[in-house]
């Protein structure tokens, strides 16, 4: 828990050089899967690795703690691999139901619904019904610059429109909150030095794995029944795994690039 | 907290404290602040835009001298519209965890500069000194454009000259039509001219009425419409009719009365008559996609209302007719491959001519050639008509060459569900307890950040 602010603020470029040692296990790994938390070696920003093969940013510590209680599950991966994973197309938003939010320059208080949707809580009575007598302690300020991560939806007309506990149950993970297609798993094909990212990953039986070539050179994905043919920069290849087991593959052009898919029930 | 300090916050704004101006006096392009430290850009859409970092601010402004102060409640009344991005070309940017260096192009586009040699060619050997780190969290405020492979892909000076203000970085909105001029009701004393309709449609009959007085007596009144004499009366009052021309390019006509007094004084009075050719929704135009790639097809459809007795329908591209449909065809379609360079904007509108020769113009719509086309979005509803207490499924599907990253379901234009994948996004709505109509639509965003909205699906609750 220490250094948490520093770890989080992706913004804090200038403080990154303060280089606090990572509180958890410092060993690096190239094996990680969809839904896990990752960070690099040098910079201590934590990301959520999503099924679309992208890393999603937590805008601040408060957002992180609506989803996780500590940093024990964060995996440290090599910097080059982290760099080859593209950033998410949106940022992580508050876990629905946990808190209410507002911005400093507008008195409106909002409940957070699935997908970072803000729903105005128009009266104190409704806030009290939804969040109890201590509802004021459940309100957090979202900095103006992060307000764009949210969308303003319809306001709550009656307290039955929104049940914090139900909404929380329905969105256990960030992938569920963002409604990712969890039967799809994306692997980045990086350069020769980066290799496949993640190198080793675990997917559920029936999942479709998509390899995306984000390098500037051609690559292939070959091994067993896997054969992509030549993937030009930007091209993708996908394969659905219907049986359990461990499947090794490599790049037919660059022999040093190897990877493994573990398929489990 | 670190974050706040970056909201331009702790800069010494107090020295610019002046008496608050009222929000009503704000004009688009103003910089505003209230009692707090943050400065916002007030845009044409009436919303305020946040500067996410100080560095962003200083790519646009050199100081805070033009910031206007409004009251806290006035500021609160303005919605946040989004974040301001770097001024195009001024800096090169990157994120801390990825070595790729990007140039900033128009419309918030980041374009990867593929080699150091290219960076040197574009930004001199000192290019590394203009590179700034964008915090990861603000990367989503930009769109990824195409890579820069040769220096000619990125013309710095012309891009900069097109980016004079923050508004220019926003996606171009359709310009609002200027309001019709209000007919002037001036009077020159002894002569009164009135018209039966201040706003006319082609083919209408307009009646001009003039009454003149003079101590010496009136010998003659002449009535003119659009400079043409339509009636001449040898009395102190005069009435004349005119049929509004059905062909012509004018949007404004002048009605004029000239009164000749016995003592040889002449008085003139004019009234302006506005021509309404907006067709008031009787003719409409639909384009398949607002943004397409080079060599893709643009599809245009012009629909005419059932009340029009159609003689013909024309579709115009950049004011040139490119398609004519014969009578009785209520829906006129046209599709063509557009080959213009990226950034080219084509303007389309339709004109329906009725058997009387009256014309009904559709609003103008544009098709832009982009480096990325907008997704195709459709909304599907379980039932078009339901009874009170029933629920209904709404499914939004989308497709795009780059893949869909986000699909949203909207009710009455508010988002009710978001799905971060290309799979169709379904929501069960209701139960609906009140009779009326429900309007659903969908919106999809592709992998390059381009979004598009579907047409509306309407469900009736009985």
Please, could you describe this protein's structure?
The complex is a heterodimer of chains A (about 260) and B (about 450). With about 260 residues, chain A is of the alpha/beta class. Helices cover about 15% and strands about 30% of the residues of chain A. Chain A has a five-stranded mixed β-sheet, with no helix packed on it. Chain A has a four-stranded mixed β-sheet with strand order 3-2-1-4, with no helix packed on it. Chain B folds into five domains: about 10-85; about 90-160; about 180-195 and about 200-270, Immunoglobulins (Immunoglobulin-like), CATH 2.60.40; about 285-370, Immunoglobulin-like (Sandwich), CATH 2.60.40; about 375-460, Immunoglobulins (Immunoglobulin-like), CATH 2.60.40.10. Chain B is about 10% helix and about 45% strand. Chain B contains five helices and 36 strands. In chain B, the strands form eight sheets. In chain B, strands 20, 22, 23, 25, 26 and 27 form a six-stranded mixed β-sheet that branches. In chain B, strands 29, 31, 32, 34, 35 and 36 form a six-stranded mixed β-sheet that branches. A five-stranded mixed β-sheet of chain B has the order 4-1-2-3-5, with no helix packed on it. Chain B starts with a helix and ends with a strand. The model of chain B is unreliable at about 1-20 and about 170-190 (pLDDT under 50). At the A-B interface, helix 3 and strand 9 of A face helix 1, helix 3, strand 5, strand 31 and strand 32 of B.
- Assign the CATH topology of the largest domain in chain B: Immunoglobulin-like
Helical content band of chain A: 10-25%
What is the H-and-E element order of chain A? HEEEHEHEEEHEEHHEEEEEEEEE
Overall geometry of chain A comes to: elongated
Q: Tell me what the CATH architecture of the largest domain in chain B is.
A: Sandwich
Query: What is the oligomer described by this structure?
Result: heterodimer
The total count of strands of chain B amounts to: 36
Radius of gyration of chain A over alpha carbons?
21 Å
Global morphology of chain B = globular
Q: On the 0-100 scale, what is the average pLDDT of chain B?
A: 82
Largest sheet of chain A: 5 strands, mixed
Straight-line N-to-C gap of chain B: 54 Å
Number of helical elements of chain A: 6
Q: Greatest interface and its residue counts?
A: A-B, 52 and 53 residues
């Amino acid at each position: 828990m220490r250094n948490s602010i520093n770890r989080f603020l992706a913004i804090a470029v200038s403080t990154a050089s303060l280089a606090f040692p990572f509180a958890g296990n410092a060993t690096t790994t190239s094996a990680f899967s969809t839904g896990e938390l990752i960070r690099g070696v040098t910079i201590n920003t934590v990301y959520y690795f999503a099924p679309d093969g992208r890393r999603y940013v937590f805008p601040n510590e408060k957002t992180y703690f609506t989803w996780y209680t500590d940093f024990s599950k964060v995996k440290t991966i090599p910097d080059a691999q982290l760099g080859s994973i593209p950033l998410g197309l949106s940022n992580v938003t508050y876990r629905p139901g946990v808190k209410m939010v507002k911005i400093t320059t507008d008195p409106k208080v909002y409940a957070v619904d699935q997908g970072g949707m803000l729903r105005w809580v128009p009266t104190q009575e409704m806030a009290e019904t939804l969040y109890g007598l201590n509802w004021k302690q459940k309100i957090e300020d979202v900095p103006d610059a992060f307000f764009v991560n949210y969308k303003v939806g319809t306001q709550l007309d009656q307290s039955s429109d929104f049940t914090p506990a139900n909404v929380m149950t329905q969105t256990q993970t960030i992938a569920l909150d963002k409604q990712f297609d969890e039967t799809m798993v994306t692997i980045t094909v990086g350069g020769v030095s980066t290799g496949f990212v993640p190198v080793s990953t675990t997917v559920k039986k029936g999942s479709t794995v998509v390899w995306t070539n984000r390098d500037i050179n051609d690559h292939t994905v070959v091994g067993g029944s896997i054969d992509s043919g030549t993937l030009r920069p930007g091209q993708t290849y996908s394969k659905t795994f219907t049986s359990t087991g461990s499947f090794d593959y490599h790049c037919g052009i660059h022999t040093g690039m190897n990877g493994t898919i573990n398929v489990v029930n | 907290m670190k974050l706040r300090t970056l909201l331009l916050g702790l800069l010494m704004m107090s020295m610019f404290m002046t008496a608050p101006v009222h929000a009503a006096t704000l004009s688009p392009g103003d910089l505003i602040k209230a009692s707090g430290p943050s400065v916002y850009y007030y845009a044409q859409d009436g919303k305020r835009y946040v500067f996410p970092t100080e560095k962003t601010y200083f790519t646009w402004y050199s100081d805070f001298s033009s910031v206007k102060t409004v009251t806290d409640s006035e500021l609160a009344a303005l919605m946040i519209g989004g974040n301001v991005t770097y001024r195009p070309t001024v800096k090169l940017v990157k994120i801390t965890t990825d070595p790729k260096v990007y140039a900033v192009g128009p419309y918030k586009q980041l374009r990867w500069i593929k080699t150091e040699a290219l960076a040197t060619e574009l930004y001199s050997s000192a290019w590394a000194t203009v590179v700034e780190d964008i915090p990861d969290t603000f990367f989503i405020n930009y769109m990824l454009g195409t890579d820069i492979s040769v220096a000619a892909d990125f013309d710095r000076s012309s891009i900069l000259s097109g980016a004079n203000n923050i508004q220019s970085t926003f996606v171009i909105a359709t310009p609002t039509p200027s309001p019709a001029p209000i007919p002037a009701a001036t009077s020159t004393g002894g002569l009164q001219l009135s018209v039966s309709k201040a706003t006319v449609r082609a083919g209408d009959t307009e009646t001009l009425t003039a009454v003149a007085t003079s101590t010496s007596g009136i010998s003659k009144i002449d009535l003119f419409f659009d400079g043409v004499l339509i009636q001449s009366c040898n009395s102190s009052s005069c009435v004349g009719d005119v049929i509004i021309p059905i062909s012509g390019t004018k949007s404004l006509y002048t009605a004029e009365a000239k009164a000749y007094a016995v003592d040889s004084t002449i008085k003139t009075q004019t009234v302006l008559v506005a021509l309404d050719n907006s067709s008031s929704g009787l003719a409409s135009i639909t384009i398949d996609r607002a943004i397409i790639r080079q060599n893709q097809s643009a599809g245009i459809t012009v629909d005419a209302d059932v009340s029009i007795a159609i003689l013909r329908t024309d579709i115009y591209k950049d004011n040139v007719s490119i398609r004519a449909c014969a009578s009785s065809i209520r829906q006129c379609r046209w599709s063509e491959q557009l080959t213009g360079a990226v950034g080219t904007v084509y303007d389309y509108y339709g004109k329906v001519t009725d058997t009387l020769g009256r014309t009904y113009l559709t609003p103008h719509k544009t098709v832009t050639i982009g480096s990325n086309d907008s997704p195709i979005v459709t909304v599907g509803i379980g039932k078009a008509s339901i009874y009170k207490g029933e629920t209904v499924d709404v499914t939004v599907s989308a497709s795009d060459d780059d893949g869909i990253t986000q699909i949203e379901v909207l009710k009455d234009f508010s988002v009710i569900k978001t799905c971060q994948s290309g799979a169709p996004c379904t929501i069960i709505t209701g139960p609906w307890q009140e009779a009326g109509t429900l309007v659903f639509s969908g919106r999809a965003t592709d992998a390059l950040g381009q979004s598009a909205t579907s047409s509306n699906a309407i469900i009736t609750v009985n």
